[in-house]
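Usage

Read records sequentially. Each one opens with the input sequence:
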Amino acid sequence: MGDQVKRCLMLAVALSLAGCATYSPLPLTTQAHAPHDPASIKVDASTMSLPPLRHHVFDPRHGLDMTDVAMLAVVNNPQLKLARDERGIGHAQAFAARLLPDPVLDLARGYPTGGPAVTTSYGLGLSYDIGALLTHGLSKRAANASACQVDLNVLWQEWQVVGASRQLFVRNRYEARMLALLRKEAALREKHHALLVQAQAHGDVSLTAIGADLDSLQAVQLRRNRMERQLLKTRQALNALLGLSPQARLTLVGSDTLPVIDAAQLASDIAALPRRRPDLLALAAGYRSADARYRKAIWQQFPAINVGFTRARDTDAIGTRGFQVSLSLPLFNRNRGHISIAKATRQKLHDAYSVRLLNARHDVERIVQDQSLLERQRVELQQGVTFSDSTLAHERAVAAAGDVSAAEQLQLEANGFARRLELLGIDESLLEQQVALRTLVGWTSPVTGVASSPR
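and closes with the structure output:
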């Protein structure tokens, strides 16, 4: 019988070692560098989770258009890489939750130290937690919902990164146009100031006039310098979002406009938000997981049952076979603490979903109202720009005949520059809001599954 115990022990050790994981080192790198050239980054369109990106050919050799920038952001954004690592952890946790607990093997051997003992004694027992089997279905349901929630959260982060990349693309293009206007205005004022300085040398212009013109010139130069810094900041922000070096020089090409979403389509998209927005779907998956855990906690208030089989021999060489059942007595704990926690967690997720859905609709409505106001202001400003352009053309012709002073013409030029800058600012705001609106209402048809994202 001692040989049987040894064989059982050896078998148990062999089975426990059969599926063991092995260690593999993963040394830290101290030489990490962000790439300078977007062409060095592999972008596989087929792996994109957003269909509008999946059907675009990524080719940075001739510059990056708005969709190229979005694809590069999905692939190489540092925060998305960390989110996908978190997704790996979430799936591992879900996998662990789906596993059943292992059975317990008890082995004992006794050696007599005195008395009329005939032989050594031993005990052999195999037991299992039946309660884990009873709640295994709920554990699997909670784990699957948690894994789905992790995937949807990563997808929502991808949506946000794509939206941010498009907004930075728009901002880059419009700030470059504003800077070109400010440089043109500064060059015009510098030329005018130089002429005044020459006239003052001949006594035709007072020092007071020179000082006033210099103040106007420096004010324009200050706005130009601020726009140069702002454009540099925007370019660096785009490089950081794309996971590129701050020294990377991107050539942005293609259209920076988006088709306007009509009112009927927008109303339909708002009604479909619970089926379209990954963050709402993620919260719904988290609620299902919490509900399953709440049900599991209720099941676990009943006595825990462990069932096992035993075989033993005492020192008088008398062998026995039998079984054992152990029950926890629900007198004090009754799992009430875990039930309260699970119930409160479910309630929190229930309320979080309602609040997120309400905020999503409010965000869309705020953008729509703001766009309506900006559109009206744009019409008014466009009329002013058109008038300024026609007036300038007339004044230039009159100035050629000597009927208008250089100062008056310069003031008209300055007014035209100011109106065009304001118009560019409104156009930029309208386009950035269109990008934000597409992020809020969804990029494509309702999400029915989560595609694998690039790693």
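Summary fields computed downstream for this record:
- DSSP finds twelve helices and four strands in the chain.
- Confidence is low (pLDDT under 50) at residues 444-455.
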